[in-house]
DNA sequence: ACTGAAATGGTCATCAT
DNA sequence: ATGATGACCATTTCAGT
């Protein structure tokens, strides 16, 4: 029933998305109060957003620094043709890798990696050297992360092909 | 309540962290069932993890592609000394920027940016050119993201030189 | 989408280890 | 210091409107 397939989101949907991105553990009661809906109606909206694949999951954000991983690095990887990290699907063997992207350009992959120490970094890059050439950059400060997606003109953004740019954001 | 319990995380804490990273909306009842604790005890553990700053927030994960932002790019920025993006604190004016890191190496910053179209990318890089020289790479596929922090051998990975216990503070 | 009732979950005081 | 239990209150869910 959520499949009014290409219905675009209304203001209430966007409010729900904003609130749930900021606090996924809100009760439907409180969430409904904030968006101006009753709890059952709110729950139904959220269920539709989940079914539509717009909300994919709810996750606790953890501070890796406090879990003994004070070092965050980005590694650009140019894979060797015969040992590509993707094709061997060995990424699972590296729990240090938080995110992995395939990129256009000179390097075939970008890795975001959390590490416990310089020794750990050394051991990790050594292990990774089997797969390709690396360029490593250490994060010296994290200016911000996981900004909430919350646009002012969703109806524009939902139809990228037919629009002029969109430069404004809510509030 | 213990102010000085400088203890590190036990297996139950790790189970809680794993479950909450996978589903932040679990009830304490269900979470407690999974980790083998009563609901109040589970709630107390979670509260301590929050107070210790280990769990920083709970967020709904949204699929930016379905919100009209099919283009994900990384931009390396070498700021002009006089117009550094950090010092002018103009990053707020760019809702397209999802994450921003200060990096060691040739480039002073790495931006992760979500965009609605090629035209949008063009307009964005044009606006950003005021701040510094850019190198842009488009993400062609996202191999994985936000891997759950859940080490097989926490006793190894959890001991950097400075293990941080929990500092508790009252709510 | 709202209301109201039944089921479930959260919180607190208390007790036990 | 931490966990369990039970009472009480809040929230979720489902019916009917």
From TrEMBL, chains A, B:
PROSITE patterns linked to this entry: HTH_ASNC_1 (PS00519), HTH_ASNC_2 (PS50956)
CDD domains the UniProt entry points to: HTH_ARSR
Gene3D superfamilies (UniProt xref): 3.30.70.920, Winged helix-like DNA-binding domain superfamily/Winged helix DNA-binding domain
InterPro entries found in the cross-reference section: ArsR-like_HTH (IPR011991), AsnC-type_HTH_dom (IPR000485), Dimeric_a/b-barrel (IPR011008), Tscrpt_reg_AsnC-like (IPR019888), Tscrpt_reg_AsnC/Lrp_C (IPR019887), Tscrpt_reg_HTH_AsnC-type_CS (IPR019885), WH-like_DNA-bd_sf (IPR036388), WH_DNA-bd_sf (IPR036390)
Gene Ontology CC: one annotated term: cytosol
Listed GO MF terms: sequence-specific DNA binding
Location of the HTH asnC-type domain: 9-70
GO biological process, one term: response to amino acid
Keywords tagged on the record: DNA-binding, Transcription, Transcription regulation
Protein name as it appears in the record: Lrp/AsnC family transcriptional regulator
Species: Ktedonosporobacter rubrisoli
């Amino acid at each position: 029933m959520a499949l009014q397939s290409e219905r675009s989101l209304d203001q209430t949907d966007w409010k729900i998305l904003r609130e749930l991105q900021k606090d996924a553990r809100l009760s439907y009661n409180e969430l409904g109060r904030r968006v101006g809906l009753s709890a059952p109606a709110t729950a139904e909206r959220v269920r539709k957003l989940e079914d539509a694949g717009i909300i994919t999951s709810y996750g606790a954000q953890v501070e890796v620094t406090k879990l003994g991983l004070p070092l965050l690095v980005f590694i650009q990887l140019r894979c060797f043709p015969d040992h590509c990290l993707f094709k061997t699907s060995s990424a699972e063997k590296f729990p240090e890798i938080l995110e992995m992207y395939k990129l256009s350009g000179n390097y075939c992959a970008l890795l975001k990696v959390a590490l416990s120490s310089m020794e750990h970094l050394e051991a990790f890059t050594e292990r990774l050297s089997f797969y390709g050439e690396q360029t490593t950059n250490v994060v010296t400060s994290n200016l911000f992360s996981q900004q909430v997606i919350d646009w002012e003109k969703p109806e524009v953004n939902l139809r990228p092909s037919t629009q002029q740019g969109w430069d404004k954001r809510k509030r």
